[in-house]
């Protein structure tokens, strides 16, 4: 029997919530780039009411830990922590890139996925995943050892390790940087998953729950990948 897990994600333009109970999913999802703070809690209330449970009935709270929008990731983890504190629930952070790999499998049964989120500033958040026989995903590192990274698309070509088979694209990065990403040493298949979804985060969180990989709410942390951002100051404000 699966754990009772509430999952939420606001790391991209998409805002989503999912509740998994006894392998049944209750979901809400909406593209709402500027309304995450208005949409997310009503979505939580809706799935809890639909399932007929309260937060106190759950085992854990999962969240999209990033990468993604700085603001979106912060909103998601902040709301998740607030809910977890109130109900004394442990938390499970899930990679948004891995969640898109899971979504691609859910929709198209693709077992090899290359995920790229447009990170702005002429960069992408990158992850390459292969599905294992037990349903978990193995991240394939680029040649400098990073499994997930932020990188200019033109530089990724030089670092990517060639892999066999057809790899399905996921994420907004493919549309934003079509030319440089077309040169990757991979056989690519066009996909239609653009954003992470909470229902896929809930599925991946089950694996982490069974392995004991949850933390107390105060220990939950985001994954930004881009740790330093240089801001150009306005004249007179140096």
Description:
There is one protein chain. With 238 residues, this protein is α/β, with parallel strands linked by helices. The protein has two domains: 5-96 and 196-219, 2-Layer Sandwich (Nucleotidyltransferase, domain 5), CATH 3.30.420; 97-189, Nucleotidyltransferase, domain 5 (2-Layer Sandwich), CATH 3.30.420. The chain has seven helices and eleven strands. The strands form two sheets. Strands 6, 7, 8, 9, 10 and 11 form a six-stranded mixed beta sheet that branches. Strands 3-2-1-4-5 form a five-stranded mixed beta sheet, sandwiched between helices. Strand 1 (5-9) and strand 2 form a beta hairpin. Helix 3 (96-108) packs across helix 7 (198-210). The protein is globular and about 50 Å long. The N and C termini lie far apart (58 Å). The relative contact order is 0.20. Residues 229-238 have low confidence and may be disordered. Pfam families: TsaD. InterPro entries: ATPase_NBD, Gcp-like_dom, T6A_TsaB. Keywords: Cytoplasm, Transferase, tRNA processing. It comes from Vibrio algicola. GO terms for molecular function: transferase activity.
The fourth-level CATH homologous superfamily of the largest domain is ATPase, nucleotide binding domain
Q: In DSSP terms, counting alpha (H) and pi (I) runs of 4 or more, how many helices?
A: 7
Oligomeric organization of the protein chains: single chain
Net shape = globular
**Helix-strand category:** alpha/beta
Q: How many strands in all? A: 11
Unreliable segments (pLDDT under 50, ≥5 consecutive)?
A: 229-238
What is the top-level CATH class of the largest domain?
A: Alpha Beta
Number of domains: 2
Estimated radius of gyration: 18 Å
CATH topology of the largest domain: Nucleotidyltransferase, domain 5
| Mean pLDDT across every amino acid position | 93
For the record, the CATH architecture of the largest domain stands as 2-Layer Sandwich
Order of helices and strands: EEEHEHEHEEEEHEHHEH
Summarize the amount of helix as a percent range: 25-40%
Major β-sheet, in short? 6 strands, mixed
Name the beta content range: 25-35%
Distance between the termini: 58 Å
């Amino acid at each position: 029997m699966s754990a009772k897990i509430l999952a939420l994600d606001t790391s991209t333009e998409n805002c989503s919530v999912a509740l998994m109970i006894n392998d049944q999913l209750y979901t809400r999802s909406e593209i709402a780039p500027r309304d995450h703070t208005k949409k997310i809690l009503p979505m939580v209330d809706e799935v809890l009411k639909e399932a007929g449970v309260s937060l106190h009935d759950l085992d854990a709270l999962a969240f999209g830990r990033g990468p993604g929008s700085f603001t979106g990731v912060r909103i998601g983890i902040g709301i998740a922590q607030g809910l977890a504190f109130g109900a004394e629930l442990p938390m499970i952070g899930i990679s948004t890139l891995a969640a898109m790999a899971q979504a691609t499998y859910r929709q198209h049964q693709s077992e090899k996925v290359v995920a790229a989120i447009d990170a702005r500033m002429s960069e992408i958040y990158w992850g390459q995943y292969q599905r294992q026989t037990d349903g978990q995903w193995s991240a394939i590192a680029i040649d400098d050892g990073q499994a997930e990274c932020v990188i200019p698309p033109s530089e990724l070509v030089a670092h990517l390790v060639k892999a066999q088979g057809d790899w399905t694209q996921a994420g907004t990065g493919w549309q934003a940087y079509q030319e440089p990403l077309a040169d990757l040493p991979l056989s690519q298949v066009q996909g239609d998953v653009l954003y992470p979804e909470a229902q896929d985060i809930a599925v991946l969180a089950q694996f982490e729950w069974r392995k004991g990989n949850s933390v107390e709410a105060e220990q939950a942390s985001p994954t930004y990948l881009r740790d330093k951002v240089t801001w150009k100051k306005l004249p007179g404000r140096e």
